[in-house]
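Posting for a labmate who doesn't have an account.
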Amino acid sequence: MRSRTGDHMSEDRLLRLFHGMCLGVQALHSATPIALAHRDLKPANVLMSDDDCPVWMDFGSMGRARLDINRTSEALALQDLAAEKCSMPYRAPELFNVESHTSIDERIDIWSLGCCLYAMCFFRSPFEAAHERGDSVALAVLSGHVDFPEDSPYSGGVHSIIRTMLEVDSLQRPFIETVIQSVIDVASRAPNKA
């Protein structure tokens, strides 16, 4: 509905809702005895509670957050699983071409969260335009190039959070605790409270 009217939510509300989404992800990433990753975070998988709090749903893709990929067969199996279960415009770059002898961790969800925050701001994933044009979403994601509308109503702080989360190099991407702290910091300076 908001996308049809171009009605942007206030930065204060945006950050409050996104903070709640991050807390849900933090619960998965800090699960014991094994940390979990959702693996299909996208706006369509968020419900709003009666008290306007975001709640994640659709845990069919969820699995162990940290995986050591030692063989080509393991890499291909994870890549196939991601192709089947993870929505392409929100999928982390390392899941498009999984390499053997590598590790995957919960920061795949951080990438998806960054795409979600972008979609909350601008009504679609930063990589949906490539999909709509018939271009390769995988190449768009792997490029890591993200444009922000010139007339963005959001602060540079919000843009910075998105850029940090959409770091192609998964080892340079932040963990959820760092994202939460960034959201708190930017929210404390939010310009348009409503």
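Reply:
Got it, the structure tokens are right above this. The mean pLDDT is 92.
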